[in-house]
Amino acid sequence: MNIKKYIMDKSKELNIDMIRFTDSSPLVDIKDFIMERKNLGYSTEFEEKDIERRINPKIILLDCKSIIAIALSYNIKYNENLNTDLKGKLSRCSWGLDYHKVLNNKMKKLIEEMEKKVKFNYSYFADTGPLVDREIAKKSGLGYYGKNCTIINEKFGSFIFLGYILTDLDIEEDGIIEGYNCGECNLCLKACPTGALEAPYRLNPKKCISYLTQTKGDIPYEQRKKMGINVYGCDVCQLVCPKNKYAEESSNKEFLPLRTKGYIDIKELFKISNREFKNEYGNMAGSWVGRNTLRRNAIIALGNMKKGENVSFLKELLSLNNIDFNLRKYIYWSLLNIDKKLGKEIIGDGIKDRIDIDEIEKLLRYFKI
């Protein structure tokens, strides 16, 4: 039987938007780029540290012969009149159900269909695997690299989730689709709020708002100002991309923001327990960073709103006994960012210990007070 055609037919039944095939040879084209990033200090805590594991499929699955690359579009059109006071913005990737779960479920079902026809070894991943999924997508022909370092598909644009299945099956590969690129367009570079896109096809993740909302490390003062009201992720470089303007709308209704409406209620975020957070937001992709990381981002968002009415809420947070220094220092920043004079008066009353004093002194110097 023609196993490739069978897989493609089953993928359509499972509402998988795109499926392509490539071989198991090492992803040599990306190796120098990974080394360059490492030498520049651009590697993040979320990346696989072993470079060979990032480029060689046979290290992950010893008898790997072919890779099935799949993509789901999350180019969802959703507009609802919403009062965004005290609301933090969520990236489209975290609007609906957790894409890791959706992708894994579809790949698992596809594998089950394949197993009805052939016995094989496999391993599958949705974003969390060690291999560079974007390079697999490029190599298989799912799309090409945009200047913002996302994978762009001519039909679905760049709002696509990527997954891959390593197999020991011999499947005819598709290969790279030639002739597509960004041309002279550099709208994404111009639009990036933090200048994270330092050159075409060169992203400094340490400046990227999407990374900043996920890291548990300290966020520099100047970067906080540029985060806006983003509580998880950032879509700016994709929203300005002309390829997304005319991209086909996704039919994957799992990604509609039925629960969140595309925002997260900041007051609710501070009222609910960790268990309630998991119940309320556990099915959201961005929930993996944890309640406290989202709370930190929400505090930054409150400061960037520059609204006087947010001061009372921040002051209320400062008085809570369970607010530790890792959140207090962001409250101090937000209060000063809204109103230097009033903020200085409030934080003077909220000092808990020497650590607070040191941080406040640094902030006062930064804000030139």
Automatic annotation (TrEMBL):
One of its GO terms (molecular function) is 4 iron, 4 sulfur cluster binding. Coiled coil: none annotated. Residues 173-202 form the 4Fe-4S ferredoxin-type domain. InterPro entries: 4Fe4S_Fe-S-bd, 4Fe4S_Fe_S_CS, QueG, QueG_DUF1730. SUPFAM superfamilies: 4Fe-4S ferredoxins. It is an enzyme of class 1 (oxidoreductase). This is tRNA epoxyqueuosine(34) reductase QueG.
